[in-house]
Amino acid sequence: MTVVEEIVHRHCVDDQIERFLSLGSGLNWESFDFSTNLEPSRFLKKGLVFSGSTKLPDNQEDASWVGVQHWCKCLSEIRIAVSGCEWNVEVEDHEMQWDAAVNAYDPTR
Q: Which of 31, 57, 98, 104 is close enough to 27 for a disulfide, judged by CB 3.0 to 4.6 Å?
């Protein structure tokens, strides 16, 4: 398992998805779909190292905000682990700002 896969696994919401589907409780999460291209000989040619997407939960008043915070934490860890790259993280066409002081995406900005 790569470092990126380990990070995504730690932030996995599959158990919460199962709970929502079986009991109807909790947020209506969706899994984080991603791909990596971490071999230097490959990404220098293609330019893309990491790509991913998910749908934010939206079945409760604060569900989307909870989702944004959750995935910003995940992507912050990945950005730290995969250094030396340019990053672009967006939610609904709003770019998430990187806070270099705390090494994390700040969804409040």
A: 57
Confidence of residue 25 (pLDDT cuts 50, 70, 90): very high
User: In terms of residue numbers, what domain contains 64?
Assistant: 3-106
CA-based nearest residue to 69, from 31, 17, 104, 22: 104
Strand partners, 34: 52
- pLDDT in the model for residue 65: 97
pTM of the model: 0.87
Give Cα separations from 70 to 11, 14, 38 (angstroms).
8, 14, 24
User: Which of the 8 DSSP states describes residue 26?
Assistant: S
Return the axis-axis angle of helices 3-10 and 63-81, rounded to nearest 10°: 160
DSSP-assigned letters across all residues of 31-96: --EEEE---HHHHHHH---EEEE-PPP-SSTTHHHHHHHHHHHHHHHHHHHS-S-----EETTEEP
Give the chain's mean pLDDT: 90
